[in-house]
Structures are given as C-alpha cells and as structure tokens.
Amino acid sequence: MKSTVAQIMTKNPKTVGPSASVVSAAKIMKAAKIGALFVKKGKQLVGILTDTDITRRAVLSGKKLDKLTVVEIMTSPIHTIDAGQNVDDAQDMMGDLGIRHLGVTKAGEIVGIVSVRDLLMHYKRYAQSKLPQMEYDEPKIGQD
What is the pLDDT along the chain (144 residues), one digit of tens a residue? Predict the structure, then answer.
C-alpha cells in the first residue's frame, strides 16, 4: 500500500501574522528548524512564507528586513494537496510547480504541511526497508 501525505506531514504547522517583520519570521523559522510558516490573518490562512521567499524577495528587494513585513513577500495562494493523496502525488505536484512546501488539506481545511525534506525522509525510510539485510563478518586480525 502506498503511503499518504497525512502519514508524513507535519501537523499543527507554525504560523505568523501578516504584519510581522521578515526578521522576526526568520527567527521563528530558525528556532523551529523549519523552512516555511503559514501566514494567518485572524482565523484565516492567507499565504505561506518560505525561506526561498526571504532570500529571493526580501533580500533582493534592497529594503531593510526589519521594516519589511511578511505580507509584502509571502506567496499567495497556498498550494495544497489532500491528506489522503499518495506521497508520489505530492512529489509530482512540487516538481511541476517548482515549490518545496504544500499545505495539506482535509475536508477543505489546512491541517498540516508537507515539505521536500518530509518526502526525502519518507523515500529514505522506504529504500532502507527494501535493502536486503546483509551479514557482515568481522575481519580476523592476522589471518589472511
């Protein structure tokens, strides 16, 4: 049976407000060791801020990063995939769209996030589970 996106996603993803500074958002991302934050206005998710947005939009804008707000550089709308879809579908979607993060939905509501790193870890575990367990004999010192 193929794995679903729900099985590898991160639940309860971190969020930031649209008026937060890019610097404060970057500090949250660094502390949490993540590459994306959802942007939340009230109860509604209005975009996603990724490390790529920060490097390609914020840094290259030439504006002072502590004055630049998240809403000015975030990506909107959020690209999403249903939680029940196959992991391979998430990989295909990310590749086709040229992105590294997808919001994960269930009944139309975002319930998590899946990243390229999540996919890599999934495929690594899968590959390791398919490798034959090789027996290894310790070499005996002094014997040829």
Answer: 589 999 999 999 999 999 999 999 999 999 999 999 999 999 999 999 999 999 999 988 889 888 999 999 999 999 999 999 999 999 999 999 999 999 999 999 999 999 999 999 999 888 887 766 555 556 666 655
Describe the crossing of helices 87-97 and 116-130 by its angle, rounded to 10 degrees: 140
- The Cα 131–Cα 129 span in angstroms is 6
The CA-based dihedral angle spanning residues 106, 95, 23, 56, taken in that order and rounded to the nearest 10 degrees = -150
Instruction: Please state the domain extents for the chain.
Output: 5-129
For domain 5-129, say whether CATH 3.10.580.10 is its number: yes
pTM: 0.83
